[in-house]
Design goal:
By secondary structure, the protein is of the alpha+beta class. It has one domain (15-134): Roll (Thiol Ester Dehydrase, Chain A). The chain is built from one helix and eight strands, in the order E-E-E-E-H-E-E-E-E. The protein has one helix spanning 44-65; strands at 15-19, 23-29, 37-38, 41-42, 71-83, 92-103, 106-115, 118-134. A six-stranded antiparallel β-sheet has the order 1-2-6-7-8-5, covered by helices on one side. A two-stranded antiparallel ribbon has the order 3-4. It starts with 14 loop residues before the first strand and ends with a strand.
């Protein structure tokens, strides 16, 4: 939680497995009381939020590593959202994001969510990162 501005009950990642300037990998176990769970499954919105928080965790990790405050980021656009399955309550998902081009303060990101070895969701998104607005301000 030190790498993202979200707080319970809206936290959609548990662990940052790896992170660098171009790639972040997280894991998340879906609890029965998760705010984005419905009818025994993690929802589509939860999967998108999980990808966005994974991107945020990577950005936050790198900021802290370089002694900078964690910046605030906002989803500016979603594109090519594909969801082929929903994980069940108590499933653990792995999420990876790859950071592409940065134009001004807009970061192009590709996200993918896996349940076991199966890719169940992906999307491209643009995130506006405001380095002058630390998270939580």
């Amino acid at each position: 939680m030190k790498y993202i501005p979200q707080r319970p009950p809206f936290v959609m990642i548990d662990d940052v497995i790896s992170a660098d300037e171009k790639h972040t990998l997280t894991s998340f176990t879906i609890a029965p009381d998760n705010i984005m769970a419905e009818n025994g499954f993690f929802t589509e919105g939860g999967l998108v939020e999980n990808m966005a928080q994974t991107a945020g965790a990577g950005t936050g990790y790198m900021a802290i590593k370089h002694g900078k405050p964690m910046p605030m980021g906002y989803i500016a656009a979603l594109k090519n959202v594909t969801i082929t399955g929903l994980p069940k309550i108590n499933d653990t998902i792995r999420t990876e994001v790859n950071f592409g081009q940065i134009v001004m303060n807009f970061h192009q990101v590709q996200g993918r969510v896996y349940s076991g070895d199966q890719e169940i969701a992906s999307c491209e998104f643009k995130i506006f990162v405001n380095p002058d607005q630390p998270a939580g301000s």
